[in-house]
Design brief:
alpha/beta; Rossmann fold; 3 domains; two-stranded antiparallel ribbon; about 25% strand; binds S-adenosylmethionine
Length: about 300
């Protein structure tokens, strides 16, 4: 519809539009019916439609799609201003509406926009953790993904033909015939049959620190003990955790060093372990746990349940 027709429609009240515009008549009749009135006999209907239209205009303006007068805004990067950019970033981030509906996934390369620009915010450790796990999962293995709620990894594994269970108090928002979900803490999980492989990708370092709702009692070491009875003898554990020269707790997660990583893996036979080091905000580099290449790394471990 042209801008002139839009403006004419906006200027006319609903009584006039009902007479002149067949679609407006249809809408008004529909609302009459919904309200249980008699067609055309309830002046309040026109007031309500005016209010609804005004609300819609304001919502579109708030979303940056239209200005306050209802005119469509240009949708180009160059036209982006600060308030709209802030809205877009919030909507795409871990507090936005999708996240509130449990549909935010922590992707390795988050992008942010600003007036006239879009840029990589950072490259996070998922850039090395996800490929490590995908390459190390044994062919055809059944998999338990511990703390997988905000990751597409479980769906990727199910789509590759693995029988996958996610255990996370937050559940799992994606569905697949090969995927099942236990919406509980790991400590509350019991399985009819042990799995071939457990994945704990950036998960157990949070356990017992009180940041995640429903995490229950038990810390990281309890989790690794529990996994020994959930993974079949000879089965595999794929573990990734934050790593640095000195162990500690940073905010809502533990950071491991060689000694605390060894302690965490007590009872498991480590068959592969390496690191990736964060060189700067955008760069991760493969390396070893013994030779730090920065202040923060991630440990990548494969272990067997003997
Ligand atoms: C940082 S996220 C894990 C990241 C995720 N694996 C990924 O690939 O991006 C930590 C997850 O652990 C879950 N979690 C916390 N305590 C848990 C517990 N006791 N048992 C299972 N999952 C738990 C949280 O709900 C959250 O989804």
């Amino acid at each position: 519809m042209s801008g002139a027709r839009d403006r004419l429609r906006a200027a006319l009240g609903w009584p006039a539009r009902r007479l002149l515009d067949p679609r407006a008549r249809w809408t008004a009749d529909l609302v009459d019916d919904q309200l249980g009135g008699h067609r055309g006999e309830r002046p309040a209907v026109h007031d309500r439609l005016d209010v609804l239209e005004e609300l819609q205009r304001r919502q579109l303006a708030a979303l940056g799609a239209h200005d306050a007068a209802g005119r469509a805004l240009p949708r180009s990067l160059e036209a982006l201003d600060e308030p709209v950019a802030a809205l877009v970033n919030w909507a795409a981030g871990p507090d936005g509406p999708a996240a509130q509906a449990g549909l935010w996934f922590n992707e390795p390369v988050p992008v942010r926009v600003g007036p006239g620009r879009a840029e990589v915010l950072l490259v996070n450790e998922r850039i090395v953790e996800q490929p490590y796990v995908l390459a190390a999962v044994p062919s055809g293995a059944s998999v338990l993904d511990v703390g997988g709620a905000e990751s597409t990894l479980a769906l990727a594994l199910a789509s590759r033909g693995h029988d996958v269970r996610v255990v996370d108090p937050r559940g799992y928002p994606l569905a697949h015939p090969g995927l099942s979900v236990s919406a509980c803490a790991l400590s509350a999980l019991s399985l009819d049959e042990r799995v071939d492989c457990a994945v704990a990708l950036s998960a157990v370092e949070h356990f017992g620190l009180g940041h995640y709702a429903g995490s229950g009692a038990g810390d990281d070491r309890d989790a690794l003990v529990a996994l020994r009875s959930l993974v079949r003898p000879g089965g595999t554990l794929l573990l990734t955790v934050p790593f640095a020269a000195d162990a500690g707790v940073e905010g809502f997660e533990r950071v491991y060093d060689l000694a605390s990583l060894d302690a965490l893996l007590a009872g498991w036979e480590v068959v592969d372990r390496s690191a990736a080091w964060r060189l700067d905000r955008l760069t991760w580099m493969a390396g070893s746990l013994e030779a730090p290449r920065g202040d923060r790394g991630v440990a990548l471990v494969t272990a067997v349940n003997r």
